Automatic annotation (TrEMBL):
GO terms for molecular function: oxidoreductase activity, acting on paired donors, with oxidation of a pair of donors resulting in the reduction of molecular oxygen to two molecules of water. One of its GO terms (biological process) is lipid metabolic process. One of its GO terms (cellular component) is membrane. This is Acyl-CoA desaturase. Residues 65-331 form the Fatty acid desaturase domain. It comes from Amycolatopsis antarctica.
Length: 374
């Protein structure tokens, strides 16, 4: 946990927020046909991969065809989840007025109902990013991922819970909306979840019926192989989404905050919290596309409603702004960020790792003097 108010002076925060607002406005003003063409091309690629993948599973008796089919279907599900579903449901393309790209109408190819996710993720997570007891994505209600979370013997299983969550990640995200931990503490009743549960049952029923009943039956005697192929594609998507999301939120040096220190925060302070509470993952163009550009989690937390394809374009400028104000810009390759997450999960499973970490001291740079001279 960090002393958020100690990072920058009030004047620095104001200037910092103004620079990021200007950057955002430049991008918004520049949005146009290229952005629409990009997402449409990704949608076409996703659909083609699904058709090819499901088609190859009809020849699943031939091992290379089965493997290729599972690979194509896995890529299709990853694109649908990460670069299309996540980003469209964030409202990144609402400005197009295209009903097919409407954040309020779009549904993705996994068991989590879009309406539930839009509340728990778009609103709760992106409004209260890394605020303890407000952002329920901290630990997803089952993990100890921050030292300020009070230790309980239950957390001895921290690494095992995380591994299990990775394998069934789409189901974990769906059940996350039940807020089961709050039901246990009496803060919430099962009856409060009536509508949430109804949406879960409908959506999960459709997904299970499609992947594990309809398409296997369509392949006749190959139904068991098709069932296995669909399960493998879903598993691949789960492991990938878990890795990208956890590496963007929980590596070493990603910070958390209290409700008190974020009370009545300004726009600049909100931006500051997003940068301190996020981490990027370095990689190539294909890697960024398959991550939904959540490999640029810092830029995504700053501007969640800007098309994600723009994040690599502005990452250098965001990093330069961070350097100007002496702020960290947490980034690194997937293996390093994932290793840090694993280390944290193991460390925080133990009771003697319970004290909140000390905040890093800000750089001793007189930014007010520099701003006055600029």
């Amino acid at each position: 946990m960090t002393g958020l108010q100690d990072r920058l002076t009030p004047r620095q925060v104001e200037e910092f927020g103004r620079e990021l607002d200007e950057l955002r406005q430049r991008v918004v003003t520049d949005l146009g046909a290229e952005d629409v063409d990009y997402i449409q091309d990704v949608i076409k690629a996703q659909r083609a991969l699904e058709v090819v993948g499901r088609g190859l599973l009809f020849a699943g008796f031939f091992p290379p065809a089965w493997i290729a089919g599972v690979g194509a279907l896995s890529l299709s599900k990853i694109l649908d989840n990460m670069e299309i579903g996540h980003n469209v449901m964030h409202g990144q393309y609402d400005w197009t007025r295209d009903p097919a790209l409407s954040s309020n109408k779009f549904e993705w190819d996994n068991v989590t109902p879009g309406e539930n996710w839009r509340h728990s993720h778009n609103y709760m997570h992106h409004t209260y990013t890394n605020i303890l007891d407000k952002d329920r994505d901290i630990g997803y209600g089952i993990l100890r991922i921050d030292p300020a979370q009070k230790w309980h013997p239950y957390y001895l299983g921290n690494p095992a819970y995380a591994l299990a969550l990775a394998f069934v990640f789409q189901w974990g995200v769906m059940l996350h909306d039940l807020e089961f931990d709050r039901i246990v503490t009496g803060e919430r009743k099962w009856s409060d979840n009536k509508d949430v549960i109804a949406r879960m049952v409908r959506k999960a029923g459709r997904q299970v019926g499609k992947d594990y009943v309809l398409f296997p039956l369509l392949t006749g005697p190959l139904a068991p192989l098709t069932f296995l192929g669909n399960a493998t594609a879903n598993l691949t998507r789960n492991l990938w989404a878990f890795s990208i999301i956890f590496c963007g939120h929980f590596p070493a040096d990603v910070e958390s905050f209290t409700e008190e220190e974020t009370e009545n925060e300004s726009r600049g302070q909100w931006y500051l919290r997003q940068i301190l509470g996020s981490a990027n993952i370095s990689g190539g163009t294909l890697f960024h596309v398959l991550s939904g550009n959540l490999s640029h989690q810092i830029e995504h937390h700053l501007f969640p409603d800007i098309p994600a394809r723009r994040y690599p374009q502005i990452a250098g400028e965001v990093r330069a702004i961070c350097e100007k104000y002496g702020l960290p810009y947490n980034t690194g390759p997937l293996h390093r960020q994932l290793g840090q997450v694993a280390k944290k999960l193991i460390k925080l499973a133990l009771p003697w790792n319970g004290a909140p970490r000390e905040p890093k001291a800000p750089r001793t740079v007189d930014r007010d003097r520099q701003l006055s001279a600029a």
